[in-house]
UniProtKB/TrEMBL annotation:
Entry protein name: UPF0056 membrane protein
InterPro entries assigned to the protein according to its UniProt record, in alphabetical order: Multi_antbiot-R_MarC
Species annotation: Flagellimonas alvinocaridis
Localization, UniProt: Cell membrane
Principal place of residence: membrane
Keywords linked to the UniProt accession: Cell membrane, Membrane, Transmembrane, Transmembrane helix
Highest taxon of source: Bacteria
Family that this chain belongs to: Belongs to the UPF0056 (MarC) family.
Membrane topology summary: Multi-pass membrane protein
Length: 194
């Protein structure tokens, strides 16, 4: 077992920024108002299963459809980039249908285990040991569960301005991650292309 505290912390921070559950609190509260109840346990468990499954089979699925990890990571860097722009500028680029119930869709997928999270997992897989990434996923899912459970309380404590500031800060972190992801993988794409 190759447990490494530094890798766990770094992977946890990246996933924390990408999942952005704190930044999603306004969305979660909006959903709670629309559908009345959020199944926090179900959403958290399903999101964790999706993430761990993708960590192991994601690369095989990509190979099956003829896409290499670098191409996927570059595509993912664009998704993370747009997510960051949304967070920093407070605009909505991604629109979705209003759900009937809020547990698996849209909370587990795509809010928690969305395209940005999937891409980050594959990118982390290229750099870190799997066991460290799994610990990072578990830590994030525990945090996600706590946030889902107490979203109304968090909204009261932080207020609109507090949430907005947190969202913008994580937006900037996410933007930096997107740029790093793009730069790291675009070079390898060109090397493979030659």
């Amino acid at each position: 077992m190759n447990f490494n505290f530094k890798e766990i912390v770094t992977a946890s921070m990246i996933l924390f920024a990408v999942i952005d559950i704190v930044g999603s609190i306004p969305v979660i509260i909006g959903l709670r108002n629309k559908v009345g109840h959020i199944q926090s346990e179900k959403a958290s468990i399903v999101a964790a299963c999706i993430m761990v499954a993708f960590l192991f089979v994601g690369e095989s699925i990509l190979k099956l459809i003829g896409i290499d990890v670098n191409s996927f990571a570059v595509a993912g860097s664009f998704i993370i980039f747009f997510l960051a722009i949304e967070m920093i500028l407070g605009i909505t680029l991604y629109k979705d249908d209003v759900p009937e119930s809020a547990s698996i869709v849209p909370i587990a997928f795509p809010l928690i285990a969305g395209a940005g999270t999937m891409t980050s997992l594959l990118s982390l897989r290229a750099e870190y040991y799997v066991e460290n990434i799994i610990v990072a996923i578990v830590l994030n899912i525990i945090f996600v569960y706590l946030v889902l459970k107490s979203s109304a309380k968090i909204e009261r404590v932080l207020g609109k301005n507090g949430l907005s500031i947190i969202r913008k800060v994580f937006g900037v972190i996410l933007l930096a991650i997107a740029v790093k992801l793009f730069a790291a993988n675009i070079n390898q794409l060109f090397e493979h292309g030659q």
